[in-house]
């Protein structure tokens, strides 16, 4: 029967998407960042897709470009662990803090006026490496 597809669950794996997809004969889905282009089309013009990652500074232009995301193209990025904004994030990785199921609640505002959303509540349309509850 063999392998029919390769899937991964870490957004930062986008870095390897192009290389692996080009070297195997099955569909490859290494990163949820692959969903950003779809989400942009679903929400329509003038709306912004939120991308939530663990640490914003670790998401590079290459992570975005290899999955077809152009710089400044209707998305904003926030880091769950940046500036201690979501200490609940540690509940996923530190065994002594883990709850079942993992939970997190936080809020934020968009700080990117170039996308026309400065100061508005920021609710990600796409989440990466985080618990499902982002309020």
List the helices and strands and how they pair.
Layout: E1 6-7, H1 14-21, E2 28-29, H2 36-43, E3 49-53, H3 61-65, E4 75-79, H4 90-93, E5 126-127
Parallel strand pairs: 1-2, 3-4, 3-5
Could you please describe the fold and organization of this structure?
The chain has 135 residues and is α/β, with parallel strands linked by helices. The chain has one domain. Helices cover 19% and strands 12% of the residues. The chain has four helices and five strands; from the N terminus they run βαβαβαβαβ. The chain has helices at 14-21, 36-43, 61-65, 90-93; strands at 6-7, 28-29, 49-53, 75-79, 126-127. It has a three-stranded parallel beta sheet with strand order 4-3-5. A two-stranded parallel ribbon has the order 1-2. α1 links the parallel β1 (6-7) and β2. The radius of gyration is 16 Å and the shape is globular.
Descriptive keywords:
19% helix, alpha/beta, 4 helices, disordered C terminus, three-stranded parallel sheet, 5 strands, two-stranded parallel ribbon, single chain, 135 residues
The stretches of 5 or more residues where confidence is low (pLDDT under 50) are: 112-135
* N-to-C SSE string, H for helix and E for strand: EHEHEHEHE
Morphology call: globular
DSSP strand content: 5-15%
Strand order of the largest sheet: 4-3-5
Rounded Rg? 16 Å
Mean pLDDT, nearest integer? 74
- So how many helices? 4
Helix content: 10-25%
Secondary structure: number of strands? 5
The number of domains: 1
Query: What is the structural class?
Result: alpha/beta
Largest sheet: 3 strands, parallel
